[in-house]
Each structure stands twice: as structure tokens, then as C-alpha cells.
């Protein structure tokens, strides 16, 4: 201790001249540069200190290479592409190849034909005499170079997809080093170069194994390029009984991907290195090169083409908007987590194109919006059809048409926003849904105001009671409630909630699902019934009062409605009652049962849903307000208060076995009732032809599996409560309990149980 010197006073004196909350920096640097200055001389941060071998610097991409080396470079690049999609970046994968770097640098600086611009000659190296007639020279300049051009062009396509619909450093990390990846070149030109390379190969005397591997790699590059053509593909979607659409090149691509041979990789020394990180404008810290396992890369190519083929095939079979909605709800939601960045981007761009066509079909967004609304509230919605404003003043008619046009524009924008949610990763979907709630809420207010005003003018559908049906507003409210509920319960799957928040989540889910059920069983059914009543009762009464030409005109209109519109309305109503309402009732019961189960756990002291974590710095009321903040800005439905939440947990202060047993028995009945409804739903999906017509086979499969998971979950919950009841009945009420959570069969319902506190 005697050797130590106390510098405390000197230290604080030296700090007296510093201003508080101010970063110290040299006036010669701006803040960002000043921060970066700490990277200098740090080998982990300073790209100027990257160590490269002599071979890395002096590597000549234009030099002839043995066939094994050419195959090795091709293989390494094919593996590198999938490595890039696996949370890496271009400088650590594709751009670590000196061949690619040189080709792309020359492409932007050279003139002449495409082949001349894509030269492999590095002008910074001393020129070497090469035998341009040798096989090795031809393998580099007539085979490898076209392959490099194809891979570069495909990387360019991937970057274009990423720029449009993917999120940087979330779905994909680009770091493209400001290079041009041949994006302006037509893929047909690059495919021609590949065909020329394959033709030249067939004239050479190569071993069969080497020839096959080179041909396979060239074919693979060609099929990757052809993926871009999918975004211009036109399907017969939304056409009943349309023939299944097949793309032979996707089947062929799967075969070629299955025959990829990444064994025996031998690359020339210096052909792959950190050289580009040192040589070009690099604003990122030094990193090691990255490559996934060769077998994984091969499987990724197979899976990529299979997933794209499955998506295109399914999309081509979609016959109506109901099928499309269920396909998005089940297939895309389930598959999107399995897609790599490329497939995810292609799917998102395929669903809705730049011209706003849906799945590249003849149905565009404006037409889709009307069909989506009427898939819920039934066809023949007055406000969605051209308005007959003959009875209105000119000024009023123009104003009405302007307001309706604005509402349709707002609807298109909001539904377009909703379509873009699908295909994103689950966390991003949460963020987008959160933002979308306010948009739906505002749209509902505007729509209700407009529909009410129009009804006063005699424009709009009416209920059987003679009131305004508010069909469009009801669709908006239904969608908003659905999005609110999805935002809430998807957080369970993402494990966003603490254990002490679970009752709050299921309590609010029960509230929202009940509102949704009330809306659909009430107003939505009434709207459809009102449209049916208009055709079957209102119009016939009007016919009796008319004569002559007017009567004949109305009779023709009525005949058309009876023949073409009435069957559709009745079918929509049956689907609603036989499937949608049963599904909503089943979920309502499930949420209510889980809520009741958690109340029991709270009652017996296994947990406390009125207290947050130990040593919390704030009250549970603040937690309540913070957790429900995403829903607090919604006007309708109004957010429940904390007082209502507390009252929902009210129970006798002194634990009572009889009270607990009664509650357990009632909750078991709820789980059994929900199980019964899910079984009914499952049977309907398998046997009811009308319901099945609103699903693709794959979508129905997902829906049935979901029902199966929920049935199993109901059984497990009921068994757990039965076991708890027997323990309480045996007098173990004095024993302490604690809540335990395990992964469940269904993503929205983990297995929540209680165990004795003495259990370890």
C-alpha cells in the first residue's frame, strides 16, 4: 500500500474545466469522425491494419487455371451466396472473391461490349504473357467469366428485391461496396453468355466428372437468373376452375440443385481473401470471411426452388378472395418464418406488384378491396357500386362522388399496407400492425361519418329494421378488432410478456374476442340478412306499386338479383354461421377459460397478477398502462381501465377450498366446450363443401392442424385443473404453490400449470 500514490485530488482538479454532458473531441473532427478516431491503430476496428498475404495482393484473376480450381471458385461462390443470406454480408462472402471484385470494378470503368466490360484483367498488376489458346485460359475466360457475370447479375437482382421489400440488417445485410452488379443488363444477355460457355465446354476434351460439374454449376447460375422472370409472370388467379400453373424451369432447377457437387473444393491461393475490405471504400470493421457448410448450402438451393415452386403453384389455384385471405392467414404466416431473404422478397413482390395487381392476375387493388369487403358483408354493397345521383343536386352529387372516391382511396392504401405485413418476420409484423391500428381507427371514423351522411341522402344499404347498415364501416371495425387481437396474442408466441402479465393479456384477449364475436354475430349477420331481405321482400313490395316501363325495369333488376346475387349472399351467410362464428366462439371460450384458470392460480397464491417483479421501481398500474399503450390510442373500443382489471381479480380474501373447487369445475367445463367447438370446426373443414371452397387444400390443412393443437391444449389444461382440484380436495390447501410455464402445442397457449413450492 505504501507504493500506491493517491491521485484523487489531481484527477478531480483536471476535470474541473470540463463542461457537463459534452463529448470531448478535436475541433478538426466532426462528431462522427471524432468517434471513429478511436478505431485508429486498433486492429479489431481499423481496416487499414488488415493483414493480407502477398498472394492476396498479387493474385491475377486473368491467369489460366486448372479445371479443379475453376470448379472450386464456382462452388465457393455458390456456397458464398447462401452464406450471404445466412446473416452475413457481401464483402465476407461473394465480394471476398478477387474474380468478382475485378470483374465488377472493370464493368464500371471499361467500355465496349458486355464481355469486354466484364474483363478479368486487373490493370494494377504487371501484364503477363498468357497462352490464350490453352484449355486453362478458356476455362477462366470462356466458362468462369460467364458464371461470374451470372452470379453478379443475380446478386444485383437480390439487392433490388432487398431495396424494395426487405429490411437492411434485419432480413439481409448488403454492404455492396458501391459496386454496380450488372443490374442494367437484361438477363437474356447474360443467359446467352452462359449458353455460349456451355457450347464451348461441349467441344473440349474434359473428364466426364469435371464436365458434369461445370455444366451443373452453369445451369444453376442460369436458373437463379430466371427467378427474376417470376415477377413479370401473369397468373389466372381469382378465376374459378382455372388450370394449375406450372413452371418447368422450377422443377428442372430442383433437379439441378439436387445434383450440385461441392466436394473437393480447391481454390487458387489469393482468390478469396479480405483484400476487398482493405482495397475499397470500407466503412465497416474488419471481419473474417464466412461460409456455411457445403451440404447446408446445397439444401438451401433445393429448398429455395421448392418453396418458390410451391408458392407459385398455390397462388395459381386461388379462385376467390376468400381463398386468398385464408392463404395469407395460414400458408404465408406459417411459411414466412422458414423463408430465406430471397424467397421472402420474391413472395412479397409477387403478392402485390408494382402495378398493384394481386398475384399478377387481372384483379388489381381497387377491385380486390371491394371483393375483400364483400367477402365479409356480402355482395351488392351500394356504396361500392357506381352511385345513381340523379335525384341529387349537381353540387351535392359531385361532393358525394368526391367523398366516396376519397374513402375508396383511403381503403386501398390501408388494405395495401395490411397486405405488406404478411411475409415479414414476426417481430416486424408486430411493429407494422402496431402502426396500422391508428390508420384503421381513423378510417373507421371517416367511413362511419360518410355512410351516415349518405344514408340520409337515400344512398346505402339498410338493415331489416330500416337503419343504415354501415357495411363498409363494419368491415373496417371487424378488421381493426382482428388486428388488435393479433397484435396482442402474437406477443405470447414471441414471449414478449412477463409471467405476471399473462392474466392481463388473456383478460384483454377475452374482451377483444368477445367484441369481435358480438360484431360478427350481430351487425355483420344483420347486414347480410338486410341485403337478402331487400331482394326477397322490399323489391317485391315496390313492384306491386309500380306500373308500365318502370315496373318492367324493376322486374328485370329483381330477376337479376334473384338469379345472380341472392345465391351469393346466402352462401356468404352460411359460411359465416357454419365456420366464422363457430371459430370465434371457440376462441372466445378458450381465452375465457385460460383467464379463469389464471384467476384460480392467483386465488390459491401460486402467483400474484396485481404485483410486478420483485424490487420493481414502479407500480403495477404503470405496468398495466405501459403494456396496453399500443391500444390506448384507439377510440373504439375503449381501453379497459386498471380499476376494471383489479375488479376482475376480486375474490374472497381468505382462500376457500370449496370456492376454488367450484371455480375449477366451471373452468374445466369451459375448456371442454371450447374443445367441442374446435372438433366441430375441424369436421366442418373436412366435410362441408361450401366451407372448403373458401380454402386451398394446404390452407385447410393448416387450419385443421391448428384445431388439433387447440383440442389437445384444451385437454391438457382440463387435466391439469382436475389434478389441481384433487390436491386441493385432499386438504393440501395449506401447501404453497407456484406457477410454471412450459411450451405448448399451440403458439398462443403455452402450458401454464401450478406445482408445489417444495418441488425443485
UniProtKB/TrEMBL annotation:
Keywords: Cytoplasm
A GO term from the CC aspect: NatC complex
Main localisation: cytoplasm
Keyword Cytoplasm: yes
Family stated for the protein in its record: Belongs to the MAK10 family.
Compartments, as annotated in UniProt: Cytoplasm
Higher taxonomy: Eukaryota, Fungi, Dikarya, Ascomycota, Saccharomycotina
Protein name (Swiss-Prot/TrEMBL): Uncharacterized protein
